[in-house]
Amino acid sequence: MLGAAMLMLCGAVPTGFTESIERIELVATGTETASIEIDALGGRVLVAHAKLAKKLTSELCPTAQVTKEGFTLRCTSRRLWAELTQDEKGLAIDLRALHGLPWTGDITMALHAWPLRVAGIPDECPGKLDAAKGECALAMGRTEQAESWFKTARGGADSAIAYLRLGDLALLRGDAETAVHLYAFVAPVGPVGRVARARQCELTGSCLDEVSSKQVADTTGLPDAPRAELLLHYWRRELFMNREDRVMPAFVAALHDDPSLCSGAAALCQRMIEVGLRSEDEATRSTALDGWLVGGVQRGPYELELGAEAAKAAESLGAPGFAATVLAGLSSRVPKETLPAHLLRVIELYVAAHDLVRAGVILDYADARLGTKVTSTGGWRPMRARVAASLHSVKRTTPGANSPTVATSNIDELENTVSLAAELARAAAVRSRATGSQP
Predict the structure, then answer these.
(1) Could you tell me if 120 and 192 are in contact, meaning their C-beta atoms sit under 8 angstroms apart?
(2) DSSP result, 209-266
(3) Would the N or C end of the chain have less CB density within 10 A of its end CB?
């Protein structure tokens, strides 16, 4: 994802969590301050307003691609940390490979309170017991009050939930070392203990192999809140370990069974689906696209960017009509400066899908929004000629035939009469005939 979807890692430098470190020297360009952003799940570091000072020799991020703003590092691991440093030696990026998983930004779950009974606290909000007061304050977003109550509760019967939450609050501040220390006070039993164990082992990297990851993800007998957390953390671990081809089917199946699974974790779920949509494996892209159709995933902070990725995946799978409809639905939110290229792409995709009637609808919309001075030049001209010829043919052979009923002011509600499943099935049949195999 671009723009808002990037993650700027912050907090204390993860010295105790570092597997290896490299320095990449830079030279600032222009007058704007150099900056970096990291897309950990995408395995990328984006650098703006700077260039490489010398030939890239990094083992962690061995390739660089020049961009309009600067350049992008492509990395071999998703367990990344990056910092921009300026000292007497000059400007540089300090790259770190982590033992465990990154712990800040949109690739983590937001901190949510549990019902008191789930946390094992015999009380109800606003609470009489210290731990209850802390969990109730956490539910209201009063983290400072919550931390104060949990500190008081450490010596009582509810010490397990107190230490878990104190660790969570330390992690929220970016203090992973303190968080790991606090989680260690919780016995790995019951809902609280099992979640604390997962939190700790993700940070230290002790449960990232397939067997350990599954063991930590055991949700047998757990109530809804900790169960959802353990499942989402499991899928997240698997993605960070590049096992999306194995985990994406289970993740998407769970989303269909319970669309509310991503409630409170919309950003994380969107980022996880994005990994599947970008996969080089065709089956994984198809599964992720099916997951994107779940309403709880489409709606969220990265709706526009994820929709664009879904369209790319659909096109790559041989479903250009579906891709066109996805992009058409995003049109009202596309920035004005990129709208001409966006609408032209929608028309091209409808043409590729042999849906020239709908291409005509988008062309009418483009004429209204952009003006024919724009839509009669460059790449628009061959599309306009092809659409016009098709519509003339339709009207000549089918008296009274009309374009789909879609108001040009409400293009984002354009509906595709061909389902994704049907279009993908046709694409699979075409590939099958091309290779001589059975679908």
Answers:
(1) yes
(2) SHHHHHHHT--TT--HHHHHHHHHHHHHHHHHTT-HHHHHHHHHHHHHH-GGGGTT-H
(3) C
Give the CA distances from residue 102 to residues 105, 214, 246, in Å, rounded to whole numbers and listed in that order.
Answer: 9, 19, 21
Helices 320-330 and 356-370 cross at an angle (nearest 10°) of 20
Cβ–Cβ under 8 Å, residues 195 and 225: no
Residue 51 to residue 49: CA distance in whole angstroms:
7
d(CA 263, CA 203): 24
pLDDT 10s digits, 60-112: 999 999 999 999 999 999 999 999 999 888 999 999 999 999 988 778 878 88
C-alpha–C-alpha distance, residues 146 and 130, integer Å: 9
Structure tokens at 22: 């490299």
CA distance 37 to 72: 10
User: What CA–CA distances, in Å, run from 223 to 119, 127, 200, 430?
Assistant: 10, 21, 21, 46
Amino acid at 33: T
Q: Are 314 and 420 in contact (CB under 8 A)?
A: yes
Whole-number Cα distances in Å, 215 to 21, 186, 198, 222, 230 = 30, 18, 10, 14, 11
Question: Can you name the CATH fold of 105-241?
Answer: 1.25.40
Instruction: Enumerate the CATH 1.25.40 domain ranges in the chain, comma separated.
Output: 105-241
Q: CA-CA distances (angstroms) from residue 217 to 153, 231, 315?
A: 28, 6, 35
Task: Please check whether residue 320 is in contact with residue 353, taking contact to mean a CB–CB distance below 8 angstroms.
Answer: yes
To the question of pTM greater than 0.70 for the whole model, the response is yes
Q: Which DSSP symbol is given to 62?
A: -
Tokens 């570092």, located at residue: 18
Helix, strand, coil shares, percent, the chain, to 5: 55, 10, 35
